[in-house]
Amino acid sequence: MESSTGRKRPRAARSAAIAALALAIGGPAASTAQAATPAATVVTRAAQQVSYGSATLTGSVNPRGSDASYYFQYGPTKAYGGQTAIADAGAGAKTVSVSLPVTGLQPLTVYHYRLVAVNGGGAANGNDATLLTTKVPLSLQVFASPNPAPFGGTVMIQGSLSGTGSGGVEVVLQANPFPFTAGFQSVGNPELTLADGSFSFPVPGLTQSTQFRVATVAKSALVSPVALANVAVSIDSHLARTRRRHVVRIYGTVRPAEDGMHVGIMRITHGRNVLVAGTLLHHRNPASSSFSRLVRLRPGVYRVLVVTTSGAQVSSYGPPIVVR
């Protein structure tokens, strides 16, 4: 190349001009400048707070004076496939500890992971590391059905054992009847949970409200929360005509004996229970009480409500009585 005077430029000048032009357009000179920035130094370290579904991945990054970002790759193999969010490691020249959480992991599974940092010198991959997630801890839940149960009826104590290895586990039913001061005692024989961890214990002939729980039979027993199965008084009610016009007698018996408790005669009006008469329970025999009350006749549906306060049984309605 010649100058405007016709003389050739010195070789050094020509080289500087070419480099300046390349830098301006992002050519080879720019690549040379980028390569001059050292990549970050990256080390993958042991995972922390590893559970059955999550872990905290840790490592260290030295940005080496260039603003650096980092993230973790993770997955069931060295191909990874998953990636955390991206975080900032700063632009210092000292090594800093970094960490990011991962969730949605599967229990009892080996995961590979590595730390990746990116700065002006490009991407730097840390060493591959592994972690093993834990098993899902076992837990018990129970409920009683029906609740309340009718006096002398059967209640089902059902529930499930959740967690890794919940199928085929021996569990036992324990009961603590009203007034709940005797403590829990085992009821019947132990059972094995089904493949999905579910179980059920029928309890026939329940006569008083009872606390139930289920426990595993293993050496380190796991105990469920307490489920209270209430028992409702049993009401047998009837209607009889009288010689008085538009007056009927509603009468019946209640089990167990609840002498002195209040009885309400209710008429269902527009979906609501309306009190039309009341009386008290009277002694009939050691096992039951009785009631009787004259009621002015109006067509409709009537129900008897017995209100108890003993605690061994709960208040209850009798079956509907239809008056036409």
Chain-wise SSE layout:
Blueprint: H1 11-25, H2 28-35, E1 41-48, E2 54-62, E3 68-75, E4 82-83, E5 87-90, E6 96-103, E7 110-119, E8 122-125, E9 129-132, E10 139-145, E11 149-150, E12 153-162, E13 170-177, E14 185-192, E15 198-206, E16 210-216, E17 227-229, E18 231-232, E19 234-241, E20 247-255, E21 262-269, E22 272-280, E23 282-285, E24 288-296, E25 300-307, E26 316-317, E27 321-323
Parallel strand pairs: 11-18
Antiparallel strand pairs: 1-2, 2-6, 3-4, 3-5, 3-7, 7-8, 7-9, 10-12, 12-15, 13-14, 13-16, 16-17, 19-20, 20-24, 21-22, 21-25, 23-24, 25-26, 25-27
Instruction: Please write the CATH class name of the largest domain.
Output: Mainly Beta
Q: What percentage of the residues does DSSP assign to strands (E)? A: over 45%
**Count of structural domains:** 4
Categorize the overall geometry: elongated
Percentage of helical residues? under 10%
Task: Identify the quaternary structure here.
Answer: single chain
Structural class, by secondary structure, is mainly beta
**Total beta-strand segments:** 27
CATH superfamily of the largest domain: Immunoglobulins
What is the makeup of the main sheet? 6 strands, antiparallel
Rg from Cα = 40 Å
Q: Assign the CATH architecture of the largest domain.
A: Sandwich
Mean pLDDT: 89
Distance between the termini: 120 Å
Order of SSEs, N→C?
Answer: HHEEEEEEEEEEEEEEEEEEEEEEEEEEE
Sequence stretches where pLDDT stays below 50 over 5 or more residues: 1-34
Q: What fold name stands as the CATH topology of the largest domain?
A: Immunoglobulin-like
Number of helices: 2
